[in-house]
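Design job #97: recover the sequence.
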């Protein structure tokens, strides 16, 4: 771990009830952060909170919030204010996958994704960033994906929302470069969580999954170096280079062929 029990303020982690978000919670608690954990599943949030408090003496609040609802960023802001501590980290991690042909997808589910991956994150950033700039310290991590590097057929809206997050985070990181605040787009590759089960997608990936521990460790180490765009391991590095330097139409076709649902 990078730091140990320094005098930290509040770290907010969305999507903390499992997967990558729960791992951010474990690691940040070990570093001495008070935590505000957000998710929709109360039982799972409580279980993560209990697991952490058995190991570390940190204050943990949990809040059930559906961040795909309009106005939820404001509710998050109020919940953080009620914790009574300055917010020194905001980790916008909550997300889900949608898999299949765009034309057959349920419109409400697409709208949910746009709200969760884009609107709520932009609104939360707008709400929490000013105080960080005023205090000349703070970190915002937006969990994007290697899927944001390229348009990907059959996960078109997912890839597009993650591309938005990548662009938004890198641009903001430059805007606040001299303010003492760090902004990062964390871009994991295929990671071992429930994410793919929830999306109904089984990756045909010759390389095994990354672990949540690798993702979180790399992301937090990169904060120290003020890196605005973070990939995980050599697979992440390779995805980044391939999508930058190989012909775009070829890459999009290859990506689509990999992801394309098998015929019924
Ligand atoms: N796993 C991968 O291969 C991979 C790769 C690249 C990027 N990512 C990104 O990493 C992030 C975390 O995913 P994961 O792999 O850890 O998946 P996961 O295990 O399925 O966890 C997703 C988390 O997001 C929360 N969430 C989903 N919808 C929500 C909503 N409407 N409101 C509030 N919370 C919500 C879930 O909490 P509740 O169920 O309690 O609501 C859960 O805690 C996502 O943004 C994902 O796009 C994942």
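Job complete. Output follows.
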């Amino acid at each position: 771990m990078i730091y140990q029990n320094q005098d930290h303020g509040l770290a907010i982690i969305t999507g903390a009830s499992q997967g990558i978000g729960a791992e951010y919670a474990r690691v940040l608690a070990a570093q001495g952060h008070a935590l505000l954990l957000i998710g929709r599943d109360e039982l799972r949030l409580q279980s993560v909170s209990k697991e952490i408090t058995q190991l570390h003496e940190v204050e943990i609040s949990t809040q059930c919030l559906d961040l795909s609802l309009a106005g939820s960023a404001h509710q998050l802001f109020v919940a953080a204010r009620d914790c009574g501590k300055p917010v020194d980290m905001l980790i916008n991690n909550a997300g889900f996958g949608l898999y299949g042909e765009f034309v057959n997808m349920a419109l409400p589910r697409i709208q949910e994704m746009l709200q969760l991956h884009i609107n709520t994150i932009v609104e939360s950033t707008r709400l929490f960033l000013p105080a960080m700039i005023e205090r000349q310290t703070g970190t915002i991590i937006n969990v994007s994906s290697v899927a944001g590097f390229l348009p990907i057929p059959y996960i078109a809206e997912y890839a597009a929302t993650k591309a938005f997050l990548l662009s938004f985070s890198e641009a903001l990181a430059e805007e606040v470069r001299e303010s003492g605040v760090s902004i990062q787009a964390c871009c994991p590759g295929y990671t071992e969580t429930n994410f793919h089960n929830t999306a109904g997608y089984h990756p045909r990936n010759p390389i095994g999954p990354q672990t949540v521990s690798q993702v979180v460790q790399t992301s937090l180490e990169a904060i120290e170096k003020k890196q605005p765009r973070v990939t995980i391991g050599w697979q992440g590095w390779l995805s980044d280079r391939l999508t930058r330097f190989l012909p775009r139409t070829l890459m999009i076709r290859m990506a689509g062929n990999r992801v394309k649902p098998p015929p019924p």
